Amino acid sequence: MIIDREREINAFDPEEYWTIKLDLNHDGETFETSFYGKDGKKMELKSEEDAQSVLDTIDDTFKVIDVTKKERKRNASLPFTTSSLQQDAARKLNFRAKKTMMLAQQLYEGKDLGKKEGTVGLITYMRTDSTRISDLAKTEAKEYIESTFGEEYVASQKQKEKKSANAQDAHEAIRPTSALRDPASLKPYLSRDQLRLYKLIWERLIASQMAPAVLDTVKIDVESNGMIFRANGSTVKFPGFMKVYIESKDDDIEDTNQEKEGLLPPLEVDDTVTFETIEPKQHFTQPPPRYTEARLVRAMEELGIGRPSTYAPTLDTIQRRGYVVLEEKKFLPTELGELVIEMIDEYFNDFITVQFTADMETLLDSIEHKEVEWTEVVAPIYRSFEKRLKRAEEEIEKIEVKDEPAGIDCEVCGSPMVIKMGRYGKFMACSNFPNCTNTKPVQVEIGVPCPNCKDGQIVERRSKKGRLFYGCSNYPECEFVSWDKPVAKPCPVCDS
Predict the structure, then answer these.
(1) How many independent structural domains does the chain possess?
(2) Same domain for 436 and 450?
(3) Which residue among the candidates 17, 108, 125, 475 is catalytic per the annotation?
(4) Mind listing the pLDDT tens digit for each residue in 459-485?
(5) Is 317 helix (H, G, I), strand (E, B) or coil?
């Protein structure tokens, strides 16, 4: 999936488009609008000429042609499953999936809460794909909400528990063992990260049992010579569950249709508004984003591959084996990963498709439910696999990753250096190995001179854990390092 996404990104052909933002004024109040369309129809601006045509057409005054006011309800998210917990902990707490599950395990196993309570398990089982919670949990949550926020904040009707087609529903959702045990009361007994994760789980449960938030939304369309600009705004009329918790989104996914928070001026149809500032802007469509841990877990869940207990180990395995690295919190395949997929694609292409994996999950469930005999499932797959494996064992042995000449000599023994393939990609090594064990990283320059020693270049390096950082090419003589990528631009204040 990660390599398929990388191929999509490499094959992506960006397309140009333009937006026009317009600030308008009504009785001293300024509000922002964006170009919507022409003569009542939505219109895309695909070039500078399109944008200029709109700018040449509009006047300094605009007439309000439509004002739409609505009351909209926003429901709370359901309690956590393993997948949604890993996603939200990644986005809100910056936790890796492995760390989230380790902390959740500690909360599940229990913490010593002093003489009064002793050792108590603080959350329910953390490997689950169910959003179901017990009546006791609902009663406790309702009791807490009523006493803290008031009766109007309690959900008036039962929220539907969403169950995915693949859910095994063997356990409840992930929730606190007691909704009345709020995070503040546990602060003396938990580590900082344990408390942060517990707070997230507790807030999600409480919010799921609270009344919907009520938003007042306003859409205003203004027009000048047939060109329509639109403003959207929303205000919170009743916060409901938002008093406690709001679900996060992936950082680089922007919902362009979402209303902007804030009031718009009180306008009516046929009112006139005046022009203040205008900002035409060129954009290019972006390739699909690389997977973050949160996005990859969500994609696996949506495609029906993996189980609550396998998401975190899967992500950990592909990193430990050096098939992928995390750069800026996004998965990037290594050359080793690409080589492995290339080979498996050639010999086992039917077995590494997402569809095969999802179908296999379904068939294994059917065996468990005694709907089909295991031999009927395994036999045809094994017969095909056995033939492919035999062929692969005979032919893959012949494939050899040859060393490339590096073009420089070893400073230790004078032999030519060669470029070899390692766990984290390519590196330089002496061709006289094992008599000479000299190795050097293949240095990727980023086009920035070293600010420390002035004659070195900043190059990409990797830590022992595979994390990317930046250092001077003259290391160890110059020890400049930075986790953040330097740019060739001095600070306007101090010249650093």
Answers:
(1) 5
(2) no
(3) 125
(4) 888 777 667 789 998 888 888 999 888
(5) helix
